[in-house]
Amino acid sequence: MIRDATAADVPALVTLERRCFETDRLSRRSFRHLLTRGNASLLVDDADGGITGYSLVLYHRNTSLARLYSFAVDPGHQRRGIARALLERSEGAARNHGAVAMRLEVRVDNDRAIGFYERAGYRRFATYPGYYEDSVDATRLEKKLVAHLPAELASVPYYAQTLEFTCGPACLMMAMKALDGGITLDRMLELRLWREATTVFMTSGHGGCGPFGLALAAWNRGFQVEVHVSEGSNLFVDSVRSAEKKEVIRLVQADLLREIAGTGIRLSYAPLSLAAVKSRYNRGRIPIVLVSAYRLTGDKAPHWMVITGFDSRFVYVHEPYVDVEEGETETMCIGIPILHGEFERMMRYGRSKHYALLVIGPKREKP
Q1: Whether pLDDT at 350 is above 90
Q2: Per-residue DSSP letters for 233-250?
């Protein structure tokens, strides 16, 4: 019987840990902490009052990723389906917790465990050098716990950004292509949009694109545009330390706002509710949102995503950045599911809780 672990199980868990692992063992104190104060799920297989296996899943408070931190089945009870049942229950617990993917590490020399996880649908995506106490490398694996929105059901075509700082242009390209099939998505357009919309400076690299520059780029190509930002937004100013660079960002944004004032772009300093965003999407508009990528990947950089679907639990987005070094492919970045509540939290960026969202509408009628 698989059930949630209790404090009474700790002695048996410590004994099982010693039977299964020679190094990197969890201590009695660790088990107690995880049961009482840890952000985790600890499941055990209880057979006739004895613990024959356990599964420990950790949750990061700020992301939709779960981590299978430790997993063990008593050597004397293996090949009885216990591991498979524990893993399935652990994945269910992670889904109920709001996780959309599970990651784990396995010793590179543990072919049996790697094969078990791969048969369960996990894929290798990276190697962690010297991960274990004895300096053996770890193979990193991941499994999507919630199905992505199929590409054929997404109303927005996909385009992967080709540079680290062009997520905004890539998202705008996807939105415009969804509304005007005649647009060609290529690197020339990506770079042209970036030149038009860049803030000049951001973090330690090339300038990212703010909502005002992207809005003007879309407007100048004939599209209807709404901009929703938080009051008094000076986006990205806090991302640089130099007072001179801060002033440049402010001047660029002030100039863009003056230009917007001479257009028909609808500018609002009141954030939209998720229900209002969904309503616009259902009317054929394409929302582009600036998110805190930290809540999804652990990366603290601001990041643009394009919304490509909704259902009762999830917002589906196209992620323009394909992390090839982490083993990602374009397919994995299409129609990513994010729980409604989690997505609403992601829509606030930085210590100042900035908000920025564009809604791109069909092309305007020519006068």
Answers
A1: no
A2: --TTGGG---HHHHHHHH
Residue 107 tokens, joined: 């010793």
What value does the mean pLDDT of the chain take?
87
pLDDT of residue 24: 83
**Whole-number pLDDT of residue 336:** 82
CB distance 75 to 19 below 8 Å: yes
Structure tokens at 360: 């791109």
Domains of the chain, by residue range, sit at 2-144, 151-363
Least Cα distance to 362 among 77, 155, 108, 105 occurs for: 155
DSSP state of 22: S
Domain 151-363 has CATH 3.90.70.10: yes
**In the prediction, which pLDDT does 296 show?**
59
Q: Are 212 and 351 in contact (CB under 8 A)?
A: no
For residue 34, count other CB atoms closer than 10 A to its CB: 21
pLDDT reported for residue 313 = 83
Assigned token pair, 197: 């919309």
- The pTM assigned to this predicted structure is 0.72
Q: What is the pLDDT of residues 4-39, one digit of tens each?
A: 999 999 999 999 999 888 888 889 999 998 888 778
CATH superfamily of 2-144: Gcn5-related N-acetyltransferase (GNAT) (3.40.630.30)
Question: For the packed helices 167-179 and 211-219, what is the interaxial angle rounded to 10 degrees?
Answer: 30
Distance CA 285, CA 218 (A): 13
